[in-house]
Amino acid sequence: MGFGIGDLFWIFLLLSSLQPIWQKRQIEYRRVSSLQQFQQERKSRVILLIHRQESISLLGIPISRYITIEDSEQILRAIRLTPPEVPIDLILHTPGGLVLATEQIARALIRHQAKVTVFVPHYAMSGGTMLALAADEIVMDANAVLGPVDPQLGNFPAASILKVLEDKPISEIDDQTLIMADLSRKAIQQVQRFVRTLLKDNIPKQKVQPENIESIIDALTTGRVTHDYPITIEEATEMGLPITVGLPRSIYDLMDMYPQAQGGRPSVQYIPMPYSDRRPILPVPKGRPLEEPTQMK
């Protein structure tokens, strides 16, 4: 009994629907294997907090990711399952997220007795920077960045709302703005108090000089720059933060297993091998003299 065109169509449709599931299982297996290998090398508990735009089901709808309560629940559970004497390695790639979730994770990290190391391969902004401050060591790629942790109220920076009180007479400011300014002042004070707790807790391990603590707090929490301002390793080191430059190759390999959702065409493309500046030598047609291969400039 043979298959008709209709049967072949349904078989093709079934295989097409199963392919994404198979690919997902394969990449999950590779992730777990890489995590296990990295843990064995470091003799630590490795936790990944990676936020990218990912695809929903088969629709391919991109969603934004950030630090949520669900993230804090999972990380707190991982920390609870880690013996006190086992170091924790946290690999961070995040734009930030909820203050409550971030503070819960940070407090759990500073309470862990063994060494906590944060790895930043690309960026750890806002709440991600706050988690980095909770670590005993911050290890970054040479081009990775941190970010300010100044609080945001809705779509506005708290520091900018307070600036309205400085620039206008109070009689010309509406009640809602005054209420927002009161909340902004409280938010900044709360964040400053928490960052101070993180830095003071880690002085013996991180070697943050006590005289640098207040200047670090001022630089990170007062809205001196925009909230998405990239703090480079040079600037972070100048502030007094203890930054180590250089990541293990295995972290970059792990990041490759969390790819960005692709659109209709790739926006970045390259040949994935070590770069060579020598052009390939092409065959020379008969009758033409041989020439030295040229260098790419």
Automatic annotation (TrEMBL):
Gene3D superfamilies: 2-enoyl-CoA Hydratase, Chain A, domain 1 (3.90.226.10). It comes from the Bacteria. InterPro entries: ClpP/crotonase-like_dom_sf, Pept_S49_ser-pept_pro. It holds the Pfam family SDH_protease. SUPFAM superfamilies: ClpP/crotonase. Transmembrane segments: none annotated. This is ClpP class periplasmic serine protease.
